[in-house]
From TrEMBL:
<dbReference type="InterPro" id="IPR002645">
    <property type="entry name" value="STAS_dom"/>
</dbReference>
<dbReference type="InterPro" id="IPR051932">
    <property type="entry name" value="Bact_StressResp_Reg"/>
</dbReference>
<dbReference type="Pfam" id="PF01740">
    <property type="entry name" value="STAS"/>
</dbReference>
<dbReference type="InterPro" id="IPR036513">
    <property type="entry name" value="STAS_dom_sf"/>
</dbReference>
<feature type="domain" description="STAS">
    <location>
        <begin position="160"/>
        <end position="271"/>
    </location>
</feature>
<keyword id="KW-0597">Phosphoprotein</keyword>
<protein>
    <submittedName>
        <fullName>STAS domain-containing protein</fullName>
    </submittedName>
</protein>
Length: 282
């Protein structure tokens, strides 16, 4: 860091300390704070105070353009709370733009505050600091968006993979669509939980709705069946249509000792026999 940069950062740190109230009051009127703190302006001003104080510590550190400095941890803490609340009603780009809007009043005040001899270094340091704030805001916004997408995907997978109780101690998972690694994991987790909750001794994996069975799908089925057996239950795969049976033979797929049945009805009949129940079929 050059002498000028060090002087500029120190000047900005002192500016934020002495003009803390003015900066906070102006920030409280901007979109980011007004949208998050709808309960009242006092809450917005209080949050603005915390952000100004956190940025003051970054400026005192001197590395105003370094997003890795430890002093930014407090900035991230304060900003993350606001970004998380704002992200519920705004896109990450919009939230990032609202964070960037905080720069304007700071730069204007710094420009008025300093004499010509110090203004240049202070403006550069303030610009770098507010640019770092914007980058941190974008980082948090994108991270939150990724978390939201991951949670939504997980929820969709769970909704798309219901576990049904067909009979006392018999549960079934009707699989529809592509069976990939992520979905296999959800199938196993929900199925194993159901086996415990329902005290099930037989689990049916119905693949009638799975359009294609290849070596990857077969591996997923075997992995799930093994997990079921490790829980002390029996597993049967139903929905083995003629086309799927031919594909399995042509690909040389070995399903091992997994029990298979052509239809869900056949699998249920087999399952009832395993639990000692006999039900006649029409």
């Amino acid at each position: 860091m050059t002498v000028a940069e060090d002087r500029g950062a120190a000047a900005v740190a002192e500016f934020l300390r002495t003009r803390r109230e003015q900066v906070a009051q102006q920030w409280a009127d901007l979109t980011l704070f007004r949208a998050v703190y709808v309960s009242g302006r006092d809450a917005a001003v209080s949050a603005a105070h915390r952000l100004v104080d956190a940025l003051t510590e970054v400026a005192r550190d001197g590395r105003v353009d370094d997003v890795t400095v430890p002093a930014l941890d407090q900035v991230r803490t304060v900003l993350a709370q606001m970004v998380a609340a704002r992200a519920r009603s705004g896109s990450p780009l919009r939230v990032a733009a609202e964070v960037a809007e905080l720069k304007r009043p700071v730069i204007a005040m710094v420009d008025r505050e300093f004499a010509d001899v110090d203004r240049g270094a202070a403006l550069i340091a303030a610009t770098d600091l507010m640019g770092t704030l914007r980058l941190v805001g974008m980082e948090i916004s994108l991270s939150d968006e990724g978390d939201i997408v991951a949670r939504q995907r997980q929820q969709l997978l769970e909704v798309a993979t219901p576990v049904l109780k067909l009979w006392d101690r018999v549960v079934a998972v009707p699989l529809i669509g592509t069976l990939d690694s992520a979905r296999t994991q959800v199938v196993m987790e929900t199925l194993l939980e159901a086996i415990v909750d329902q005290h099930a001794t037989v689990a049916i994996l119905d693949i009638t709705g799975v359009p294609l069975v290849d070596t990857v799908v077969a591996q997923h089925l075997m992995k799930t069946a093994l997990a079921v057996r490790l829980m002390g239950a029996r597993c049967v795969v139903s929905g083995i249509r003629p086309q799927i049976a031919q594909t399995i033979v042509q690909l040389g797929i070995d399903l091992g000792d997994i029990t298979t049945r052509a239809t869900l009805a056949d699998a249920l009949e087999w399952s009832l026999g395993q639990v000692g129940t006999s039900v006649g079929r029409a």
